[in-house]
Design brief:
Largest sheet: 2 strands, antiparallel
Distance between the termini: 42 Å
Structural class: mainly alpha
Shape: globular
């Protein structure tokens, strides 16, 4: 077991807890943080594709992704309407497809357009659900709903790593991620269930000041979040294995790049957002 990796992860966790506990979600610093994570993760995704000799419009895709995340922020804060947000999304997609027409090499242009659009969907669009959760409710209060999904996912990842390292024998996806095991997944679920029980107890049955969270919903999410998050982790592992790259970046020891840190959250955040819409409200 890598103790240094665990220590760094815990240190990052302390910083996040402090930030989410103090900073009102409507402050501009929140937008900067959301743009930073989205931009870095999108850049790393396109770098992975380039490592696999898949041509993309990297700068274009990152720029479009940042516009998408910013539009989500302004729509969630009421600055622009939902129709305006959808207009931005459609225009970004149309502009990317239109750019393909100016590429002399038709096959290369098609590859670049498709790769760029996949990156826009995989990172900025999925990350936009973190933004929506962050801004749900009173903008003068901290973004507890976003913190909830990050806490659940990271604690689940840590639990899965611990149980997988100690007891993992049965491989979950040997051709994609040989170190992942069924024992690790079960351990992650157990830890996430404990986190959810504690959350309901400490918060008095609230996801944030606006969204209620009963014990039944908490236990259901405690089961679903690690499973969906693991799928997100496996998707990135699939991409890295396909292009023969170990980490999306080497920014943080033992954790890789930003994309490596948020890959599971990219899948878990939309799950939580949709669950809230369908089953809580």
């Amino acid at each position: 077991m890598d103790k240094k990796r665990i220590t760094i992860a815990l240190g990052i966790g302390v910083v996040l807890v402090t930030a989410f506990s103090i900073v009102p979600c409507g402050w501009w610093i929140g937008l900067i943080g959301m743009l930073f994570f989205a931009g870095m993760a999108t850049w790393e995704f396109y770098s992975l594709l380039e490592a696999g000799h898949i041509s993309v419009w990297k700068n274009w895709g990152v720029g479009a992704g940042l516009i998408l995340v910013a539009a989500t922020w302004f729509q969630s804060t009421g600055t622009i309407s939902k129709i305006s947000f959808l207009g931005v999304l459609v225009l970004l997609l149309l502009a990317t497809l239109t750019r393909m027409l100016f590429e002399p090499n038709l096959k290369k242009g098609l590859s670049q357009a498709l790769g760029t659009i996949v990156g826009m969907v995989y990172v900025p669009l999925l990350w936009s659900f973190v933004v929506r959760l962050f801004l749900s409710g009173d903008l003068s209060k901290p973004g507890w709903a976003a913190f909830y999904i990050i806490l659940c996912m990271k604690m689940s990842d840590s639990g899965g790593y611990f149980f997988g390292s100690r007891f993992g024998k049965n491989k979950l996806a040997p051709t994609i991620s040989p170190k992942k095991s069924w024992e690790g997944l079960i351990g992650g679920i157990v830890v996430c269930l404990i986190v959810n029980v504690l959350w309901v107890w400490i918060s008095g049955g609230k996801l944030n000041h606006f969204i209620p969270l009963s014990m039944g919903h908490a236990l259901t999410l405690g089961l679903l979040i690690p499973i969906v998050g693991t799928i997100g982790d496996l998707v990135e592992s699939y991409i890295k294995r396909a292009v023969k790259v170990k980490d999306s970046n080497t920014m943080v020891y033992g954790l890789g790049g930003i994309l490596d840190m948020v890959d599971s959250i990219l899948f878990a955040a939309p799950l939580l957002y949709i669950y809230i819409i369908l089953f809580i409200f």
